[in-house]
Amino acid sequence: MASPETEKVMIQRIYLIIMVVFAAVFSMSAVKPAPAKKNLPVKTIPATVASAHAMEADEMTLAAVSKTNPFEIVPAAGMEILGDIEGTSADDFAMIDDMLNYARKFMGVRYVRGGRSPKGFDCSGFTSYVYSQFGIQLSPSSATQYTQGKKVSREEVQPGDLLFFTGRAARSGRVGHVAIAVDSDPVSGEITFIHAASSSGIKIDKITAPYYAARFLGARRVIGQ
User: Fold this and answer.
1) Residue 121 neighbours by CB under 8 Å, 6+ apart
2) Under CATH, which number does the domain 89-221 receive?
3) Cα-flanking dihedrals φ and ψ of residue 54, to 5°?
């Protein structure tokens, strides 16, 4: 017959074995295999619906741009419309802007009779020099420049057009002076222009100034023709 101590040890071992078996059975029952995924049919979007979604996304993008900076879109569209109306392309308007900025660099350069360089200009020498820097050749004579390009009315004048005036004899009817239009206000009719004035060199004046208002002959458009 086993002693009490031996029986106690055996009972403890049996209890430990039972606990291990129970834990193993419990863990196996807790881990279940994941259910197999079913092969669902792929849902295709009709081309018309996809196109509509793309257009909607584009509109949302444009709306976001117009809210943050509408001038990223509007000027280009406006330039194209204006070009269609006036017969001048957006590229021409860009060149005119560059040309006028270039012409302004000579503000204050002295007047020299027959001058055709930055050392000194006369009126036709200045217009022909500025235009030549942008690939357009004008005659060195203001009278001949008055035959180049397309005639435009005073109301149609736009930046970059050539403006012609008589000389000192206001009623002679002969071309004696030429300038480049810088700006034109269709409401007030005011036109500003840059030119080589015999009294003060390269400067900007207004067509409504009495001296020029009395001598204005007409305008010609060379750019875009």
Assistant:
1) 106, 109, 111, 112, 115, 129, 196, 201, 202
2) 3.90.1720.10
3) -65, -45
At 220, is the secondary structure helix, strand, or coil?
strand
Q: In terms of Cα–Cα distance, which of 5, 209, 198 is closest to 110? A: 198
**225 residues of the chain, pLDDT tens digit each:** 555 555 655 666 666 677 666 666 555 555 454 454 445 454 444 544 444 444 454 444 433 333 333 333 333 333 333 444 456 789 999 999 999 999 999 999 999 999 999 999 999 999 999 999 999 999 999 999 999 999 999 999 999 999 999 998 888 999 999 999 999 998 999 999 999 999 999 999 999 999 999 999 999 999 988
Q: Are 222 and 131 in contact (CB under 8 A)?
A: yes
Q: Which two tokens stand for residue 119?
A: 């050392």
Share of the chain above pLDDT 70, in %: 62
How many CB atoms sit inside 10 A of residue 201's CB?
Answer: 19
**Cβ pair 151, 174 in contact under 8 A:** no
Name the one residue in this structure whose structure tokens are 């994941």.
34
Residues near 110 by beta carbon (within 8 Å), at least 6 away in sequence: 120, 201
Please give the Cα distance from 150 to 135 (Å, whole number).
18
Tokens of 149: 């390009």
The radius of gyration computed from the CA coordinates of the chain, to the nearest angstrom, equals: 43
Q: Which residues are catalytic?
A: 123, 177, 195
